[in-house]
Design goal:
Blueprint (H helix, E strand, L loop, with lengths): L1 H14 L19 H12 L3 H13 L7 H13 L3 H13 L7 H13 L3 H13 L7 H13 L3 H18 L1
Helix pairs in contact: 1-9, 2-3, 3-4, 4-5, 5-6, 5-7, 6-7, 7-8, 7-9, 8-9
Length: 176
């Protein structure tokens, strides 16, 4: 536990700003790219598997097994979110926030992060907390950001834990 907190402290100091996460942060490294894996996701997505649509969207977003294509990622995350994938909603929100594959829309990003968080996606909570912590689109509200980062951290999001630690450290510095 002490080692994990040390790593989180290092990350918080190294980056200093709350970070935005996507579900792809938890995917294993791909050693031998193969289009066969992407076809498996595509088939399952076509059969209505929202998780597979999200996973295929991550492939397009990150260039796993396919050429990176943010518009395809956007369409797949939109479908995944519409079909009930909380991670798909969080990832769709991240694309809206970045303006990747679509026009930048912070209102849509915040709404999707909130939906994802309410549906149990730790990444959605962390991403929404980052908007509150930075005062991007939403008014700066550190207590709300802290609650969202805590919720994300308690749900197993390393990014949520890192963001929480960074926020607490900034608060301590401001109090001095």
């Amino acid at each position: 536990m002490a080692l994990a907190l040390g790593v989180l402290a290092f990350l918080a100091v190294a980056w200093g700003q709350p970070s935005r996460a996507t579900a792809s942060d938890s995917l294993p490294a791909v050693l031998v790219p193969s289009s066969g894996e992407a076809r498996v996701f595509a088939t399952a997505c076509e059969e209505g598997d929202a998780t597979a649509c999200n996973d295929l969207g991550v492939c397009y977003q990150r260039g796993y097994w396919v050429s990176p294509d943010s518009r395809s990622a956007f369409r797949l995350f939109d479908r995944a979110c519409s079909d009930g994938s909380a991670d798909g909603c969080s990832n769709l929100g991240a694309l809206y926030e970045q303006g990747a594959g679509t026009r930048r829309n912070l209102e849509a990003a915040a709404r999707l992060y909130e939906q994802a968080c309410n549906d149990g996606a730790a990444l959605g909570c962390s991403n929404l907390g980052a908007l509150y912590a930075r005062g991007v689109f939403l008014h700066r509200d550190r207590p709300v950001a802290r609650r969202l980062f805590s919720l994300a951290c308690e749900s197993g999001s390393a990014t949520g834990c890192s963001n929480l630690l960074a926020l607490v450290r900034r608060s301590v510095k401001l109090a001095r």
